[in-house]
Amino acid sequence: MVFVPGFALHGIVPPLVTPFRDDERIDYGAWQRIIDSLIAVGVDGLFVCGSAGEFHTLDAEERTVALRFCRQAAASRVPVCGNVGCATTRDTVSLAHRAQSLGIDFLAVVTPYYALTSQQELLNHYCEVCRSVRLPVLAYNYPQHGASDLLPETVGRIAAACGNFVGILDTGGDLKRLAAYRACAPGREMTVFVGPESLLLPGLECGCAGGSATGIDIAPQLFVDLYRAFRQGQREAARRLQALATELGRTLGLHTFPAAVKEAMQIIGLPAGWCRRPIGPMPPEARAELARVLEVLRAQGYLPAAAQRSAAGRA
Prior knowledge:
Layout: E1 11-12, H1 28-41, E2 46-48, H2 60-74, E3 80-83, H3 89-101, E4 106-110, H4 119-131, E5 137-141, H5 152-161, E6 165-170, H6 175-182, E7 191-194, H7 200-205, E8 210-211, H8 220-231, H9 235-251, H10 259-268, H11 284-299, H12 305-314
Parallel strand pairs: 1-8, 2-3, 3-4, 4-5, 5-6, 6-7, 7-8
Helix pairs in contact: 1-2, 3-4, 4-5, 8-9, 9-11, 10-11
């Protein structure tokens, strides 16, 4: 899809996990089932090869194949946003070219990791990537797991220089920062996606376009309903759903990311497999707390139907 001004990503866009077999190879059959179940619930897009997808553990060929597979699996039912960010600008541009040739709809570019890049270096990096493709590009700011923090003023400078730079997915957890991102480019409104589960409703209330929280992989109906309740002005319902989303997000932080997400999917019967090592399973006490919260969501009807039966069978 070639970028068309005014065409924007919005709503609930789950950051897909990458399911692995016991030998740590990608399980494409399981991935198709996960993607189909998310689309059936009504998500507004798919985010591929983000941090929840363990992109940092995939080699270059695996990332290319993952982008191709998810684009084909989505089958044009929803837009696909693929993270092509790498540690170097050269590798990022190369993967961006491949993603464009595969028909990916939007590119996300995580900030270069490990290196303590300056804001000027981040500006140069994003401008080079944006100018190398025709697709709309979003920055992906994940300061907790990278070395760089992309500031709103830098985002505004990138937007001023590159017309296909459309916004940012931010996981930093600062509500004021989300508002600053939206308004950082004079004459343009940046598309901003919220990462943390706890900030979805507050982010929407301050004008964010949607959310891309890892909890969506586990309870997509919860987040779709929250977004719809907000859009329809049902504030009380939205606040109730936000409380459930916040509690789910809390438990996903009880072990090394994203192990708790996959643990939850295992508990409720979704075929996510485990993380690539060195990340291991959750400790028993943390897993028990996660299972308790999942039981609350099950009772509320916010687990996928097949998963609810599976969870009930394991009880």
